[in-house]
Specification:
The complex is a heterodimer of chains A (251) and B (445). Chain A has 251 residues and is of the alpha/beta class. Chain A has a single domain, classed as 3-Layer(aba) Sandwich (Rossmann fold). Chain A has nine helices and twelve strands. The longest helix of chain A has 15 residues. The two termini of chain A are 32 Å apart. With 445 residues, chain B is of the alpha/beta class. Chain B has a domain of 219 residues. Chain B has a ten-stranded mixed β-sheet, with helices on one face. In chain B, helix 3 runs antiparallel to helix 8 and helix 10 runs antiparallel to helix 11. Chain B starts with a helix and ends in a 14-residue tail after the last helix. The chains are: A alpha/beta (251), B alpha/beta (445). The interface between A and B is medium-sized, with 31 and 22 residues.
Chain lengths: 251, 445
Amino acid sequence: MLEIKDLHAEINGKEILKGINLTINKGEVHALMGPNGAGKSTLSSVLTGHPAYKVTQGTIFFNGKDLLQLTPEERACEGIFLSFQYPVEIPGVSMVNFMRTAINEQRKYSGETPLSASDFLRLMREKKDFVEMDNKLTNRSVNEGFSGGEKKRNEIFQMAMLEPKLSILDETDSGLDIDALRIVASGVNKLKTKENASIVITHYQRLLDYIVPDFVHILFDGKIVKTGTKELALELEEKGYDWIKKDLAAE
Amino acid sequence: MKNNQFISFFEEYGSLIEENSPALLNASRKKAFQEFLRLGFSSSDADFYRFMDLPTLFATDYGINVRGLVPTFNPYRNFHCDVPGITSLLYYVVNDTFVAALQSNLPDGVIVCGLKYAAVHYPELLRQYYGASIDMQYDGISALNMMFAQDGFFMYVPEGVALEKPIQLVNILAANRPLLANSHNVIIIGKGAKSKLVVCDHTMDKNVDVFANRITEVFVDDGAEYDHYKVESTTETTKNFCTLVVNQKENSNVLTNVISLHNGVSRNNIKVNLNGCGANTMLCGMFIGGKNQHSDNATSILHHVPACNSRELFKYILDENAKGNFLGRIQVAEGASKTEAFQINRNICLTREARMYTKPQLEIYNDDVKCSHGATIGQLDDNAMFYMRQRGISEKEARLLLMSAFAADILDNIRITSLKDRIRMLIDKRLRGNGSHCDGCVICK
C-alpha cells in the first residue's frame, strides 16, 4: 500500500528526515515511536504534502501512485488521512459545511455523485455516535472552542466520516485523559478493516495498550533505527530512549 | 484658488438651475457655492481624502442635468427587481431624478416621493431637515452636491407606523456620455416608527464614465427603528460617492450595512450623530474588490449624549490590485457618560499588490465609558488552508470557505431574510470569480 524509499526532507533548509525506508501493507497497524525532534511529525507532514516541507531525495508510492506528484487534497482523496496533533480552529466554517464539502470533494474525485443532504445527515448521526461526540459540537465552527479532548475526538469522527485507506494518527493520545483515550482508541479499532492501514505516532507505550500494533518502529535523528513487534514498545518504555542512543553509539 | 469646471459651470448655469428648482432647495445653493469655492475637491481636514486623488477623479468633462429633465425611459415598466422573496416597495432614482411611481400601496400617512415634489408639496415638513445635518464647511464634496441637487428620494414614516415591507430604492446611473449626478435623499422616521430601506446602486452602461455624488440624510426620532442597507453593484467606470448622515434621537435603533460587490471608485462618508440618550447604532460594511477597484469608507460615530451604544464592523477582501481604505472615527463628547463604543476593522489582502489602509481613531473626552477598537490586515490562515486540503477540499474551495466565513458576520447584520440569502449567494459568486452583478433586474443580466 505505502512504500517509502530513502526519504530525505527538510524545512527551512534544515534536514529532518535522513533516509526513511518503510513499507506498509493493507490491514497493518504500524507504531512510530521516538524522542522529541526525531522527525515523527515531519514524516506525517511530508506524507500529507504540507507545503512547508521539501523532499530532497527518495520516493513515496501509495497504491502504485507517486505521492510526491500529488497535491495535499489529491493525497486525501486517494485515501490518506491525518489526525492532526494540533487540530486547527476555523471560526465561521461550520462542521456540517466543512464535512459536507470534504465528503463531496472526495466523491467528485472518485467520480461519484454528491451525497444528498439527508444521506449526509444520516451519515453524520451514525458516525457521531461512533466516537460518542456531542451533538452541540457538530453544530459549531470547526474545532472552535473545543477542548483538547473534543478536538481529538473530532479528528476520529472525521476519520470515520471519510473512511481513509491509510490513517496517520499523530500523537492522538496527547492531551487525553484515560476515558477519552479509551473512546478514541475504540473508535480507531472499530474502523480497522483488512483493507486499510494505520500509522500510530506516539511518545508513550500507553496508547499501544489500546491500539495494538503489528509493527513498532523507532525513529531517531531522521532515520528508523529499530523495527520490531509490540514487545519493542514495552522494552522501550522500560529502558527509555537512552537505551537507543547507547545502542547506536556502540555500533 | 481652487478653480475647476464646476465653478464656472455654476457661475454660468446657477440661475438656470434655480429657475427649474423649488425655493426650498435653492435656499442653500449660494452658501454651498461659497464653501465649494473655498474647499474645492477637498476637506478642511487634509487627511480626510488622503487616499483619493479627487481633482483627477473629477477631471472628466462631466455633464450635469441643469434643467432637471426627467429621464426618457420608465424603469417601473422595465426594471423589476427579481430577487426572490424580496417583496419590497420599489422606487427609482435615475441619475439625479426621482421617477414618479405608478402605484403605491403605502399605509396612511407614509410619504414616499421625489425630493423635488416634497419641496413643493410638503415644504413645512422638509424645511427643517433638508441639508440640516450636512457639514459643507468641512467637505467640499457635500457642498458640490448642495450646489447642484435638484431632486432625489424622500421618505416620511409618521409616528407609530411600522412598515412591514422594506422600501427599496434603486439608484440607476444611465447616460451615454460622462455625467455627474447629484441626488439628495431625505428620510424621516417618526417617533416609535419602524422601517427598512434597501438601496441598490447600479450603472447601465459599462463603458461610460459616470459619477454619482449622492447625499442621504436620515432622521430617526425617539424610539424609532430603522435599517439602512446599501448594495453597490456598478461598473469599473463608475465613481460612486455617498454621504450618509444618520441622526438619532432617544432610544432609537439603527442598523446600517453598506456592501460593495462590484465598483470602480467608491467612497462612503458615513456619519452617525447620537443625539438622544439610549440610542443604539450598528454600522457595518464590506468591500470585495479586485482589478483596480477602490473603496473608501470614512465613518464617524459621534456620541454627543450619555448612555448610547455603538458597534462598528467593516471588512475588506482585496484581490489583484484592489485598494481599500477605512477611516473610522469615534468621538465621545464631554459628559457622554456610560457610552459604549466598539469598532472592528478586519481586512484580507489576497495578493501582494492589493493595498489596505486603515486608521481607527478614538477621541474620548469623558471618563466612565467603554470603548475599544481593533484593526487587522492579513492573509488567509495557512494552517486552516492545509487542514481543509488534508480532508480533500481543493485549494480553491478551501479559500472560498475561509472567505465566506470571513464575510459571515456582515451577513448576520442583514435583517431581511431574502436579502441576506441573496447577498450570501452574491458574495459566493463574487468570490468564485463568476461575476458579482446581482442579476436581480435587467441592468445586471
